[in-house]
Design brief:
CATH superfamily: P-loop containing nucleotide triphosphate hydrolases
Number of strands: 7
Shape: globular
Mean pLDDT: 89
CATH class: Alpha Beta
Number of domains: 1
Order of helices and strands: EHEHHEHHEEEHHEHHH
Largest sheet: 5 strands, parallel
Structural class: alpha/beta
Strand order of the largest sheet: 2-3-1-6-7
CATH architecture: 3-Layer(aba) Sandwich
Oligomer: single chain
CATH topology: Rossmann fold
Number of helices: 10
Helix content: 55-70%
């Protein structure tokens, strides 16, 4: 199981799709439309965040757990949301004073119980690999504004800037102290895997190398992975090669 982790707007969903397509594995996304409470959470600044933080985090906890029940029995499933990322968010919200100590303790207990047993499998919240997208606070806010969600717009609520900064710092603090499973850090200030084919190839190559080191790709999967990357970089050559292969089959 592979987690893609980053602060808000870091590119988790984009990399999850790119990587899962290259691996031929299933992807699990955080779908905002499945969480209508988010709009209420943002609706009245820190007042609504304080009022709804616990309910929202429990809703996310249930959502992630449902995804995890499926992903845990699959090979190299890629998740752009997880119980781990939820815990980082909940901890940051608690630290901001927007979740009470009692509510946070209950959240933590529920999260630990969910991690302890998933579909009869022992699981302690540690995936096989985490790809951490490290994004600066300024880049984070630019990305959030570009995706155009009204509820996240700092022009409508300038206080969100401080909120986003605190979430970003929470992920950086997590990275500095996390040792439970392998983490591959990608510096997003130097990377645009959405618009740059060169950057996308570089990121995929780094991930492939780490997966091979961890024994997560067999030889056939490695060849398939590299074929997908080649096809991505040389689409015309791929078409020519496929045509030759089809002709060979017809000749036989």
């Amino acid at each position: 199981m592979i987690y893609i982790l980053s602060s808000i707007g870091g590119g988790k969903s984009s990399l999850t799709k790119i990587l899962s397509d290259t691996l031929d594995s299933n992807a699990y996304y955080e779908r905002v439309d499945d969480m209508p409470m988010l709009k209420e959470y943002y609706s009245a600044g820190d007042a609504s965040r304080k009022q709804l933080s616990f309910q929202l985090q429990i809703a996310f906890l249930n959502y992630r757990y449902t995804q995890l029940r499926h992903a845990i029995v699959e090979h190299n499933a890629v998740m752009d949301s997880s119980l781990l990322s939820d815990n980082i968010m909940a901890s940051a919200i608690h630290k901001r004073g927007e979740m009470t100590d009692t509510a946070f303790d209950l959240y933590q207990n529920l999260s630990m119980n969910m991690n302890a047993n998933v579909n009869g499998h022992e699981f302690h919240g540690f995936p096989d690999l985490i790809v951490y997208l490290d994004i600066s606070v300024d880049q984070e806010i630019d990305q959030i504004q570009q995706r155009g969600r009204d509820m996240e717009d700092i022009r409508k609520d300038p206080e969100l800037v401080d909120y986003y900064h605190s979430i970003n710092q929470a992920y950086k603090d997590w990275y500095d102290g996390y040792v439970q499973s392998p983490v591959l850090k990608i510096d997003m200030s130097e990377t645009d895997f959405v618009n740059s084919l060169e950057d996308r190839t570089r990121v995929l190559t780094k991930i492939e190398s780490r997966l091979i080191e961890l024994g997560m790709l067999n030889k056939t999967e490695q060849i398939n992975f590299e074929h997908k990357v080649f096809e991505m970089n040389h689409p015309q050559e791929h078409i020519i090669q496929m045509g030759k292969l089809e002709q060979t089959i017809l000749d036989i």
